[in-house]
Write a structure and sequence with these properties.
Residues 23-85 form the Metalloprotease TldD/E N-terminal domain. It is built from 10 helices and 24 strands. With 465 residues, it is of the alpha+beta class. Strands 1, 2, 3, 4, 5, 6, 7 and 8 form an 8-stranded mixed beta sheet that branches. A 6-stranded mixed beta sheet has the order 13-12-11-16-23-22, with helices on one face.
Length: 465
Amino acid sequence: MFLDTKKAQRYLDRALARGGDFAELFEEEKWTCSASMLNGKLEGANSGLRWGLSIRIFDGLRTVYGYTNEQEEEKILTVIDQLTAAIGRKRQAECPAIQEQIIPDQHAPEIPVQSVTLAQRRALMQRANDALLNYDPVIKKAIVNLADEDQTVIIASSDGRLVRDNRQRTRLRMQAVAMDGDRMQNSAKAPGAHAGYEFYDQIDVEAMARDAARTAKVMLNADECPSGEMTVVIDNGFGGVIFHEACGHSLEATSVAYGNSVFCGKLGQKVASELVNAVDDGTIPHAWGSNNIDDEGQATRRNLLIENGVLKGYLIDPLNARRMGMEATGSARRQDYTFEPTSRMTNTFLLNGTSTFEEIIADTPLGLYAKRLGGGSVNPVTGDFNFAVLEAYMIRDGKLAEPVRGATLIGNGAEILFRIDKIADNGSREQGMCGSKSGSIPTDVGQPTIRVTHMTVGGKGGKLK
């Protein structure tokens, strides 16, 4: 890392030389390490270090963007000159004296990821592997992947600020494959945090591995799910992926600013059941999707999105803030220096309600309990979605009944929000990677258990009886 206030001053002055009204620099150094294990055998381990610098210049609502991994000053200035030539106007703005701002670190690791040896990594993975394989003889394959990242960024901008941030993350993915003849089912758990290896002393790795194995075993012997419109109870934790995908992306300025969202122009209007309260909070200490600052150097925030069913806010980056005439919300994110930042989610979840899980099940005569969701597809413009259900059970006479497999949830995000009639008090979050315009980034999804009065369920088990 080499940017300081003097270098940043020179580069930003040069960036504004031919007409831009705002410029920013994003320097990144990222160390990554990954390892994989199959049935107790270490299959591979790799680590690497990457550096790069990006430059972005605003000219009203127009931007030019470039990056380089060359550290020589003359080569960096050449990239800047190429960008300013694309603007080609007289100087509009001056860059004030750059001052470094110290940002408090809410996510400092106790055991830095780069201090952990390969032997320690292997021992952690072996614990997960053994818990998977020892759960039941039907578990024939255990796949464990471990990924660590140590990223340091320096962001300087022509409003006179320079900020630094260190981000260390670790994630362990434990996958169980159950097999019986030609039948096969798999399930996985993948906890992660914006933290060091102290994280693995704070969670029960073996219990999570056994839960993945349990799901694979149960689903191996489950009958096909029936199809039709029915009441659906969606469990807490990763169940929040429906809100993230079908609603959260439609609340990002990336969609809203261009009129490509069902929530355009609806601030202050009712967009959900009055039970629904939703936030995006990038400030939660050590949460997977949290940062001290966003990728344009603004402090992250807890942004209220929906309150008692009323739309209260969007997620807005600085460029789209200009487009929308609104304030930026600390939501600018990018995968790395090669991606131009835009508005993205951090940790997005529904808040607790007042019901209990047991009350919701007992009050449901017939329906589907979607305990764990998987991948799916969403149209961000319309909010139409379909999601695979990795673990599901029928609800009959207010009780959990037989497990069913192959269920798919089909619906529209904006419509589903109005159909939520019960929310439990058991909110939790789980980790994922979110792909969008500015690359793949870590995000938390979450919710309490919710009940949707009616939803289309796809399955091969015939009509619901």
